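Input:
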Amino acid sequence: MTHSGFIFAAWGIVLAVLVLYSVHLVLRGRSLTNAVEPEHRRWLDSGAETKGVSHPPREQP
Amino acid sequence: MWHDVRLIAGKDLRIEWRSQVATGQVAPFAILVLVLFGFALDADTVALRTFTGGLYWVTVLFSAVLAIQRSFALESADGNRDALRLSGIEPAAIFFGKATALVVQLVLLEVLLGAGVAVLYGPSVEDFPLLVATAGVATIGVAAAGTLYGVLAAGLRVRETILPILLLPVLAPVLIGATRAFDDALGTVAVNGWNWLALLGLTAVVYVAFGALAFGVLLEDS
Amino acid sequence: MSVVHLRAVVALLGRFPALAGVDLDVESGEAVLLQGPNGAGKTSLLRLCAGLLAPASGEAVVLGHDLGRDRRSVRREVGMLAHATFLYDDLSVYENVCFWARAAGGSPAEAEAAIARLEIDTRLRDIPVVRLSTGQRRRTSLAVLVARRPRLWLLDEPHAGLDQAGRDIVDGLVRDAVDAGATVLVASHELDRTRTIASRVITIAGGVVVADQPIPGRSMPVGPAPERGGPDVA
Amino acid sequence: MSPAEVTSTGSRGTRVIGSIVLAGIVFHVLLSFVWSDPDADQGDLVRIMYVHVPSAWLAYMAFTVTAFGGVMYLWKRSLWWDLVAGASAEIGVVFCALALVTGSIWGRPTWGTYWEWTDVRIVTTLVLLLLYIGYLAVRRIPADPHQRSRRAAVVGIIAALNIPIVRFSVDWWADRTLHQKATIKLGGTELDGLMLFALFFGLILFTLIYAWMMIHRFRIAWLDEQIDRHGLDAAIAERLAESTSDVTRAVGLTKTGADL
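Output:
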């Protein structure tokens, strides 16, 4: 294979960046999930709860 | 609407006339950049003539950033943006008013820079109408995009840095188009400058139209 | 219909809840004194009523405009005196007043009249405001307000920085406004003075209304008035 | 699954997509390096195209999603759309940077230079990258959620409006283009079947990677909002506590005033 250095460099950079970014996402997701109270980890409900999020519904003082 | 546009533009120009920031700081800065290009290119007259169009427009863009920052510094001073919001003037009218004032200032700056370039770089003009039309249309594009991003940046602590990083990439087509049209008008590159002018016109139309629509969204928040 | 009608209004400055659930009704023709410690939310309440600060939740209706939906319409009808002067430093007194008057649809003649009403020295009329004293700038800001002829006056510390004559002019402006059927909200620490023009005192602390008392006969000495709202103080 | 069991931004959906992607990457490597042949013109360098072209396409697609999210935000005023726009822009910037890097690595042996100014796409892509770096900078400026969203929406839409203008102007500016004018001719014979398949497979694979990243990135943004929001609830509670502690003093003030 000709120019193998360039080809592997290109593929290597792509795979490395994608893997690193994915790992970063997963780790950040884990730490954030643990920082949020279990009852608020609600994105699984999709739709209703997340759409139209504006500001917290408040309890009256 | 027209009344408000004139009111805002008149106010900005009057303040500029009084404070002399544009003439005392922005214009000298622009000339300084021209001189620096001369140093950077080793006073090579051939190179300076060849790249006159590009150097001229880069200088205009840098100076425009300063003028835009100045234009919105007026409104950030002492809560005047709040006052503008309270005035009940249509955001689109404020947009057109401030953009008009910027166009006037930039045109004057461009005339001055043109004189500076003529003296310092010594290019020859082959198509004067094209030169003037290009400057006019490009200036409208710069002023429209600049007014929109100016108000976005105005209220932020990071306004000095965020404005150029947002504005200069969207003005890349203006830089390219105006430079090429100038290249034709100055006879340095054989291209059809009038086609480039059409591209500049399209860009200006997009920025003016979107700016008038989006200005209110940003004025509310910045 | 109340001029100001707020129910459980929360408003944020960035992430900070400047207003944390305000309930308030102000009727047409009232002059209301807002008092409370620094950082209580007085200024935020005025800015909210001016349509400058968005309600994050709750119900906020001012001059018939629902601020949750439309904050722009109300602005034409209110006049706000803020800590900032809202003046352009390089323009003269006349030019500033004239600019804001014309922006509100007024005429240069109204600007002249407003400057006269504030008794600004005619020799200062054409001097850039940057060269004026704080008190004169304050008067210029008030002249802008007068020229705009608002239905709801929102005054944040209107007496600050003014001399005795200036303070009397402010009091006169408030009385004239109320007589003309306008409504006035005054945030002030100068209780003695403001009590002579207000008909009701509202106490704000921690972003909520904690007390709301009428001032019967205004400046006449009276006993503690019954509370009209706010959370239980005891 | 009850919320308490959720310990990451992963879910059954992402795990399924993730597994397919992992298998797909193996398949794509085999397809690109073993099963497909060198191109008649580009030789083995065509193998770079199997990651370069999908990266570039995904960058454009991600930026389109950002602009669409911005429009939907301004229309619906729903933070959900803003978070979608922001998540997509960040991933778009990653793909855009990859497209640039792989493009210029391809350019070195092809043109003899890493950067060729007369090449339209590479210059356009650089301007695009700068536009969206600006977009992400705007998003990072601290502000309340809706302020940030409105600014971001406007900037995202301008950037998208700019894509065709930049493309067009750079196209004219670089009088000639060194890029293969038409890498893929529909029904043409420039690329043989397997090479064409490798390109399309790369595109599908990268789209799946994008989807996987989007789900995670969106959930991260959403959790960030949750933290802010519940921080806000705490702040409101604190502020109310402040009001009750101030009450005695404040009401004391009132009464003194009333006694005058």
